[in-house]
UniProtKB/TrEMBL annotation:
Gene3D superfamilies associated with the record: Adenosylhomocysteinase-like (3.40.50.1480), NAD(P)-binding Rossmann-like Domain (3.40.50.720)
CDD domains: SAHH
Organism: Dictyobacter aurantiacus
Cofactor comment text: Binds 1 NAD(+) per subunit.
Catalytic activity: S-adenosyl-L-homocysteine + H2O = L-homocysteine + adenosine
The keyword Cytoplasm is annotated on this UniProt entry: yes
Cofactor(s) required for function per UniProt: NAD(+)
UniProtKB keywords: Cytoplasm, Hydrolase, NAD, One-carbon metabolism
Function: May play a key role in the regulation of the intracellular concentration of adenosylhomocysteine.
Record's protein name: Adenosylhomocysteinase
């Protein structure tokens, strides 16, 4: 572990490798590059103290470099104890001069000490991935709130927490729900989560997905992505949902839909993507067959009732990296991946850079928007304006060399009129 005034990382000697990987990711993030070039010229964030609680990955590093290019005085910590890429954390500190507090596998005490370290920066703006930074500000560091201009939130889970805070009247500054931008959740959540979740399961287990029964809990955009990619691998997919409309969508998309307790006896691999608690509970785990795999791709490991699993088991051992085998009294074995934490970032590298390009473009433009408009905003949850959302999509298509149609003057007039009829 290397501790300094510039952060707390595992080993600064890892920095050269981290820099190489950050540069590799940058090749597939052209939208963020265009924003960085403009930021470097215009300095829209000059002097703004910013604290970020994010997954410390190669893609996040490119966001951090962009924010710094725009003039931000930025400090980072990890938003999950297992998602940090140690070489990237080292590179951020020694190669890019961005103070970073993140060590893969850090315990809970270290995790929250790192959050408090970035809050010691006395931020004017926050950037969250799961709302732990904002929740800490609203509980133990309330003295800092008067200096906060606003914040950004990246995840579904974090947005759920923020809406709860808003509803209860405790949210004390405006926050942009970056997750709700079309160019974020339609792509990051669906294509990114779909691919990276299965990538992590394959990396950690080397299991063949074809012919297996995969049970997906949740059919939001993340669940849609996981189910689609699992089907593409030849798996038999079952979807478990509490929302009747989403359950109906899953049926019409060709999947079996049933209660989770029924699916528990049929599944080979179970994946949670809901943002809720105890989605896989004791009743489910009691019915699972020998050799079942359990993975979570939601932000918190609350989705799996791990204490109940520990209670059911008579033994536990680590059989592969990121695979814990629990033995039941009757001899069955159930395997928990990545300690129940978000598997795609714990046991693999998270979403591909290409999709994070749009997500982090939202974060970068969101920080600029928040700085320019915070005085007009109330302590509520907001989304990025549609024109900025569509600009990100336009830039992405341009970078991909894809042209698309535009409306003619006649079509514009028609769509904005009511006179024409049958």
């Amino acid at each position: 572990m290397t501790t300094s005034t510039r952060g707390d990382v595992k080993d600064l000697s890892l920095a050269p490798r981290g820099k190489d990987r950050i540069e590799w990711a940058a090749k597939d993030m052209p939208v963020l590059r265009l924003i960085r070039e403009r930021f470097a010229k215009e300095q829209p964030l000059k002097g703004v103290r910013m604290s970020g609680c994010l997954h410390i990955t190669t893609e996040t590093a490119n966001l951090a470099i962009t924010l710094k290019a725009g003039g931000a005085d930025l400090v980072l910590c990890a938003s999950n104890p297992l998602s940090t890429q140690d070489d990237v954390a080292a590179a951020l500190v020694s190669e890019y001069g961005i103070p970073t507090y993140a060590i893969k596998g850090e315990d809970e005490k270290t995790y929250y000490s790192h959050i408090n370290s970035v809050l010691d920066h006395n931020p004017q703006m926050t950037m969250d991935d799961g709302c732990d930074l904002v929740s800490t500000l609203h509980t133990t560091r309330t003295d800092l709130i008067p200096g906060i201009i606003g914040g950004m939130e990246e995840t579904t889970t974090g947005v759920i927490r923020l809406h709860s805070m808003e509803k209860q009247g405790v949210l004390r500054f405006p926050v942009l729900a970056v997750n709700d931008s079309d160019t974020k959740h339609l792509f990051d959540n669906r294509y990114g989560t779909g691919q990276s979740t299965l990538d992590a399961i394959i990396r950690s287990t080397n299991v063949l997905l074809a012919g297996r029964t995969i049970v997906v809990f949740g059919y939001g955009w993340c669940g849609r992505g996981v189910a689609s990619r699992a089907h593409g691998h030849g798996a038999n997919v079952i979807v478990c949902e509490v929302d009747p409309t989403r359950a109906l969508e899953a049926v019409m998309d060709g999947y079996r839909v049933m209660p989770g307790v029924e699916a528990a006896a049929l599944g080979d691999i179970f994946i949670t993507v809901t943002g809720d608690i105890n989605v896989i509970d004791q009743a489910h785990m009691e019915k699972m067959k020998d050799g079942a795999l359990i993975a979570n791709s939601g932000h918190f490991n609350d989705e799996i009732n791990i204490p109940a699993l520990e209670k059911l088991a008579t033994g536990k051992r680590r059989v592969r990296d990121f695979v814990d085998e629990y033995t039941y009294a009757d001899g069955r074995h159930v395997h928990l991946l990545a300690e129940g934490r978000l598997v795609n970032l714990s046991a693999a590298e998270g979403h591909p850079a290409s999709v994070m390009d749009m997500s982090f473009a939202n974060q970068a433009l969101g920080s600029e928007f928040m700085l320019n408009h915070a005085k007009e905003l109330k302590p509520q949850v907001y989304t990025l304006p549609q024109d900025l959302d569509k600009e990100i999509a336009r830039l992405k298509l341009h970078a991909m060399g894809i042209k698309f149609d535009t409306l003619t003057e006649e079509q514009e007039k028609y769509l904005n009129s009511w006179e024409s009829g049958t």
